[in-house]
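Collaborator request, handled under Task 6.
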Amino acid sequence: MSDEENKELIYRNNRELHYGFDPEKGYVARVDYQYHGNQTIIQQGWDAAEDRLKEVSVKISAGKLSPLAWHMEKNLMELPMLSAYTGIMKWRIKRHLKPGIFKKLKPGLLGRYGSVFNITIEELKNPPIN
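Structure tokens returned to the collaborator:
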């Protein structure tokens, strides 16, 4: 890989295992940086996640979603995953996404969410919405 190609790497630490066939050695494995096409796809994925987070922020500001939705999106979690981590049933989490219901949650339940996201209850209630 040339120095110029190396400078263009977005994710310098992301490396992949590549397999190839060498007539003398047979199948060989080598670890190398991701090629530019993969990096573009990864960047597009992160851009899409950022766009979804902005959409959720707008809905929270408009009073359509609770702050829990922001933390779920920020941590790339969906209902089934959050349910598995917290032990709270999916239908209850879905209710907690409503601002009115979320405001009435007890500290114990908020603490369960906070421990999953590794944040305090105060941070859970007040996400850094731009």
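The cover message to the collaborator said: "The beta strands are 15-22, 26-33. The mean pLDDT is 87. Please let us know whether this matches your experimental observations."
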